[in-house]
Write a structure and sequence with these properties.
The structure is a homodimer of 165-residue chains. Chain A has 165 residues and is mainly alpha-helical. Chain A has a domain at 21-132: Winged helix-like DNA-binding domain superfamily/Winged helix DNA-binding domain (Arc Repressor Mutant, subunit A). Helices cover 52% and strands 6% of the residues of chain A. The first copy, chain A, is built from 6 helices and 2 strands. The first copy, chain A, has a two-stranded antiparallel ribbon. In chain A, strand 1 (91-95) and strand 2 (103-107) form a beta hairpin. In chain A, helix 1 crosses helix 5 (109-130), helix 1 (19-43) packs parallel to helix 6 and helix 3 (64-71) crosses helix 4 (75-87). At the A-B interface, helix 1, helix 2, helix 3 and helix 5 of A face helix 1, helix 2, helix 3 and helix 5 of B. Chain A binds a DNA duplex (30 and 30 nucleotides) through residues 2-3, 5-6, 49, 63-65, 73-77, 79-81, 96, 99-103, 163.
Chain lengths: 165, 165
DNA sequence: CCGGATGAGTAAAGCACCTTGACCCACGTC
DNA sequence: GACGTGGGTCAAGGTGCTTTACTCATCCGG
């Protein structure tokens, strides 16, 4: 055996969950689905933060410090992310037109292709979601709607709320 | 200066965000608010995962391995969490009635008090949310509702979607 | 014109939190 | 009685971030 991997636990009393946990579960589930499809599309080497970085670098690139601010991390962390993406061919560091010590981090074609694919996947996911019975949520049924969103497509038990914090 | 801390970036074009990011932002924001209030209530030493552990240990306790399964982590990680909580007086390790090598991890009174406070805070938050204009969401306005949820109470710019993954 | 303030970039170390790996031991089963 | 299974724990590894600490280029007030 592989020791013990993080395996699902819970049941289907999703309706009784606190709204906050429901929200987290829905987010985690949707993000996982998105990531899975992204991996199927050949982007298994990119984490969500990389996609966010791509968006932060549109349309004309940005400096490392600016990227750091937009991502909400230190510039050192942003620098590491850029190193990583540069190594993989998703961004380039070019001399900054405004000079100084600055460098302009710009997206390569590969990154733009990724953005296009990711956008399509996101819209597809959203459409699937609104097509579900609970797409419409009247005043008191928001909870039910979110519960439906958090429910596994295959009827499987919901995964644990991972310390996504 | 404090170097640069993770400081907020973005603006108010919340409506244009992808649904998935909106969801993440809402979750992150609400969780942050919850944590803040919990800290104000004297529980600044507890992370969300601790609260989840408390819930997983209700009502009659559980073994470390069972807790690990419910939290979706390895039993070693669960063991560390229990060590931590035990040191702080929130749980006790008792001999397991079924014997064996098992130990029953049970909540102390302090943990039950925490659960009560946390529950009140969660319900308060939820009520505040449903009292907001966007509490009611008709079919096409789910996005607007979530955007409202993700909007900072004080009108401040939304924080970055932290790699909460 | 110069001297400090400002801000970009980088390097190194630290840390929080989880995993992988490797065990030991109690119990049920045949 | 050997065996397999499952609970518990020690130790090490690893990832992804922060903190600390610097260097260097430009801006600007006197």
């Amino acid at each position: 055996m592989h020791q013990e991997a993080p395996t699902p636990p819970a049941t289907a009393e999703l309706e009784k969950l606190e709204l906050l946990f429901l929200l987290g579960l829905a987010f985690q589930l949707l993000l996982g689905e998105f990531n899975g499809r992204l991996a199927d599309a050949g982007y298994g080497d990119l984490r969500p933060v990389h996609g966010l970085a791509f968006q932060a670098l549109r349309p004309a690139g940005a400096t490392g410090s600016e990227l750091a601010r937009r991502l909400g991390v230190t510039k050192q962390a942003a620098g590491q992310i850029v190193d990583d993406l540069e190594r993989r061919g998703y961004v380039r560091r070019e001399p900054h037109p405004a000079g100084g010590r600055r460098k302009l981090v710009v997206l390569t074609e590969a990154a733009h292709r990724h953005l296009a694919v990711a956008g399509d996947l996101l819209h597809g996911l959203e459409n699937e979601l609104t097509a579900r019975p609970a797409g419409r949520a009247d005043p008191g049924r928001r909870r039910a709607g979110l519960a439906a969103a958090a429910r596994e497509p295959g009827g499987a038990p919901p995964p644990p709320l991972r310390p996504v914090w």
